[in-house]
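User: I'm new to structure prediction. If I give you an amino acid sequence, what do you actually give back? Let's try with this one:
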Amino acid sequence: MLGGGARAAKPSFVSYISPEEIHIKEPIEKEVNPRLLPGELLLCEASTVYKYMQEDGSNRGTYGKLVCTNFKISFLDDDSASDDNEPEFKNKIVGENDITLQCVDQIYGVYDEKKKLLTGQLRKYPERLIIYCKDLRVFNFCLRYTKEEEVKRIVSGIVHHSQTPKLLKRLFLFSYASAAPNNTDGRNQTVMFDTLEDWRDELERTKGNVKYKTVITNEGYRVSEKLPLYFVVPICISEESILKYEGRGIPIWCWSCHNGAALLKMSAFPKEQDDSTSQMQKAFLDGRVLKKAIEVAECLERQHTNVLLIEETATDLCCVISSLVQVMMDSYSRTKSGFQSLIQKEWVIGGHSFLDRCNHLHKSEKEEAPVFLLLLNCVWQLVQQYPPAFEFTETYLTVLSDSLYVPVFSTFFFNSQHQRDTSTSGESLKTQSGPFRFLTVWDWSVQFDPKAQAFLNNPFYAEKPKPDKSQRKTARFKHQRQLSLPLTQAKPSTKRGFFREETDHLIKNILGRRIGKFINSSDEPPNNLREFYDSWHSKPVDYHGLLLPRIDGPEIKVWAQRYLRWIPEAQLHGGGTIAITAKILDLMEEVQSLQVKIEEEHSQAVSGDVHSVTTPRNSARLSSLFPFALLQRQSVKPALPTSTWKDLEDEDDLVRRDDEFLDLSGDMS
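Assistant: Good question. You get back a string of structure tokens that encode the predicted 3D arrangement of the chain. For your 669 residues, that looks like this:
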């Protein structure tokens, strides 16, 4: 019996083998070098780095080389050297073990089992490195077996190039554009809205050219560097008014409804900003955004009332609401080219500060906010509620969100059209192969081959039927002249024009209210709005008409493919939406195959030559988060009690027997 002050006996068994040495893949023998893009330079590297498997909670992993370039952080093992077993959905620019420098969120070092955030100069170097990414991946590297000098170089290099502030022209975007060949057509069918003709065509498409006009007042950016070169305003607004107020307080046209009502936005003067407005903006975000978009849709669709969105710069929440409303009300915005054109119009040319909101230069975390991801999340809600209404898939939205952090495309790496235009000027940016030109993200061939691009297209999209030319509408809708905030009764001005000296008080009154009336703090919608909402949902859905999202309780879901794709426990192997889609596609392929056989047998019966045709089938078991959830290449089981595994293994045959195998040999398109 031990006394009160006696020490506990030491364990009789001591293991001198670290957890990493129990389940390891041997260090690679052959030299593996990173695949570098044009303009990409290798900055530092370290060998004998142990990468823990992020799919597994144990210490299993593999040895390899960790490198840092001016574009990405990359881990290279023996699988990196071969093209065998490549995933069906492969990104040609960013691999599964690549992290672009802009995608790095935070870096932690582990010192004696304690985590410490790594920033700036390091006095002591960690034994483990943990990298948290903005796409929610987590990379865990053990540096215990790496040479000390290599540890210093790789850790310092990664922290410096991914976490410290940098100049705009130091981004890899400029290096790539200078070195890459200019042989891609980035436009495709996407309207870029960088010409006067693009805006005039959009006005004509939406029948908004009756009361609105395109203006060239900002050519040379003489009015404002935040405004685009060309934009649309009400006909009553003069060029002098736009110049006088330097673009602020100008109602800028976004879109016109079929009944003539229009959606407009307006930037307020800075002096009107106050603490109460910031609180209202926070309440707006907390209210998740779909409810407000329904309010706007009700004003436009039922009340035939113009809606004016007011924000300090009109480039954040205005972009979210205006885009969401157009997706809900305009079926063209639900096609792939239409949605891309919408992003160009409202966000890229509209002046959303992608550079600051994504903090690509690591200058200020105060300006960082996932505003664009908020839009994609809302659009995803509509996509999963009304799949036949959209030409694109949730996979398209996921890769679009990932493209925010790929500095090969200029789409999401500038704050305004002015900043982009001035960045491409100058003798130093001329290339040997021709004029300096950035790539646009809308050229999907840069990232994916045709087979992978098929995953971006919805095979169940209900394409809009062509209109019957014999039936022409003769009725013309009257356009509303009143510019009002939603759900308010504002009297129209008796004066013609918004910006004359005698009507300055009207401007101040509108700006004083700002978005206060628009951002209703109440969670419960008004009675007339609820009536509009319930009435619409009681009728059959027209996939080419107005779409109202279901916003009650369980109807709002988590975007699992984006937020949970790296978590093994969230994967349902052989199930989920992708399994249903694949089975339907398999059935469609069988029907098409039968049709071909019938036609062939008919023709062969006439000619007298009869033979059978067999179709090879390549089956695989999919994950519910496919195509992003990786098919595990090693046979690894999660850390579960032995008894649990025994029960599962006893039922293994039953599981395999009930599973359906899905044919992936057919074209998803």
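You can read the tokens as a compact description of the fold. Here is one thing that stands out. Residues 42-164 form a domain with the PH-domain like fold (CATH 2.30.29.30).
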